[in-house]
Amino acid sequence: MSRLTPAVVLDAIARLAQTGQLEVSSTDVIHATHGSSATVRRHLDALCASGQLTRSGQARATRYRLAEAVEIPATVRTAHILEEPSTGPGPAWSPAAIELGHKLDWPLAARDPVTYRREFVEDYVPNKSWLMPQELAEELYRDGRLREQQPAGTYARKVLEQLLIDLSWSSSRLEGNRYTLLATEALFRRGTADSDADAVMLLNHKAAIEFLVDAVPLQGLATALIRNLHAVLMQDLLADTDALGVIRKKLVSIGGTVYVPTQVPAVLAEMLETILAKARLIKNPLEAAFFLWVNIAYLQPFEDGNKRTSRLAANIPLMLYNCSPLSFLDVNPHDYAQAMLGVYEFLDVSRAVDLFTWTYRRSMKKYVVVMESMGAPNPLRLRYREHLTEAMGRVVRDRQSAQAAVSELGLTEDRAPGFEAMLLDELKKLEVFNCARYRLTLTATQAWIDADRPH
After folding, report:
1. Is 452 annotated as a binding residue?
2. Is 101 known as a binding-site position?
3. Is the domain of 239 the same as that of 270?
4. So where does ATP get bound (predicted)?
5. Domain shared by 187 and 332, yes or no
6. Pick from 359, 306, 297, 289: nearest CA to 328
7. Domain boundary residue among 374, 407, 442?
8. Is residue 95 situated within a structural domain?
9. Domain that holds residue 410
10. Per-residue model confidence (pLDDT) at position 249
């Protein structure tokens, strides 16, 4: 690898700026250049002193940005253009990721066949080993978490309606789904798939996310939860319904790679348990999310749907620690495939780290805006949150009248002023695409709507 110079540091910051990240931390630069902390900080100080960078903030909040009219040396700029041409929004690839990309560009015949290597998981020691650079994982955690103490899953619940659309559509698109974002929104309002496999895939994603939001705070990262997640995601998409949530017994192959997953069911079951056990011990939720994402896909424990299971599973630690969800917004399918192939064939996570970091930052920005748009929470809703969920269930699922539900819960106007009015307002706004927050199923909600919303 070439020696790290101020020009390379400046170019790395320029490339990050081109992706929309105008202000960067020293950790961002360390990750982008793979330089040592001391060397990067020395070059940053020199670039600030020469007026090519400006610095703001202090200590961990220190950020750097390009000064006006800074020229990037042509030799550096040209080298990067030749190595990794830009094709629109995407990660600023690190030198290691670019080098890996060159390896993956070799014809299949020039790459040695490989199979699953269990030491990738077994040699990993939670909180001592890191797949992501530790400083980067810690920075993403600081930036992505809710500041106030809240029950697990609070962040995901607050942005649930937007998350259902974003993650369902983005994850399905990576599987070749043809629906547009607008068509996905219309599908979720309609709630029925007919015989359209693409629609089934999207609705399954929606149901799986709703399942996670309800189940994760209660079950944590349990094996049964992962298996149920797969079953929900792949319902009506697998010819063999016995394969839903079940460790595969069939041989699988992956196109476009020399990687051959292990075909031994006992090994698949054992390694899935090991992956989940180690992920549960990881204290940093971003590292845990990344660990699950790459390892479930690498293992291929199920007959099909492993990558989509890994994407949703990556959100489990984020839910438990109340971090911004990861919705894989705007990820290019080619970039995603290369990130996975780097792990499959070389156990090299450099492209996966770059991609994960880039898309998580985009997710963070999106959901911060969503949270801000909600304004201050309604104190009445906060006080009676569980009671409201119970009342909604009684009306929609049990077909009680709103008045009867309020009376049985002891929340009449004289005892809980405003509660009944709030309940009636929520019943008026209830749809199949927002029913999960009240732990209502799509079927029950649609049946209640079809019955002309009795209350």
Report:
1. no
2. no
3. yes
4. 304-311
5. yes
6. 359
7. 374
8. no
9. 379-450
10. 94
Would strands 63-66 and 53-56 be described as parallel, antiparallel, or unpaired? antiparallel
State residue 87's pLDDT score.
Answer: 52
Confidence at 1, pLDDT banded by 50, 70, 90: very low
Query: Is 309 assigned a ligand-binding role in the annotation?
Result: yes
| 295 annotated among ligand-binding-site residues | no
- Determine if residue 60 is labeled as part of a ligand binding site: no
Does the pLDDT of residue 30 top 50, yes or no? Answer: yes
Domain count, the chain: 3
d(CA 172, CA 177): 5
The enclosing H or E element of 114 equals: strand 114-115
Residues 113 and 73 grouped into a single domain: no
Encode pLDDT of 142-197 as tens digits: 999 886 656 666 777 778 888 899 999 999 999 999 999 999 999 999 888 777 89
Largest alpha-carbon pair distance within the chain? 78
* Residue 77 pLDDT grade (very low, low, confident, very high; cuts 50, 70, 90): very low
437 is an annotated ligand-binding site residue: no
User: Are 113 and 258 within 8 A, CB to CB?
Assistant: yes
Residues 368 and 410 in one domain: no
Instruction: Measure the CA–CA gap between 72 and 77, rounded to whole angstroms.
Output: 6
Q: What is the CATH number of the domain that holds 63?
A: 1.10.10.10
Q: Does 305 show up as a binding residue in the annotation?
A: yes
Is residue 103 included in any domain, yes or no? no
Tell me: pLDDT of 312 over 60. Answer: yes
375 in a known ligand binding site: no
Q: In this structure, are residues 430 and 445 in contact, taking their beta carbons and an 8 Å threshold?
A: yes
As given in the structure block, the two tokens for residue 427 are: 């019943």
| 3 state DSSP class of 175 | coil
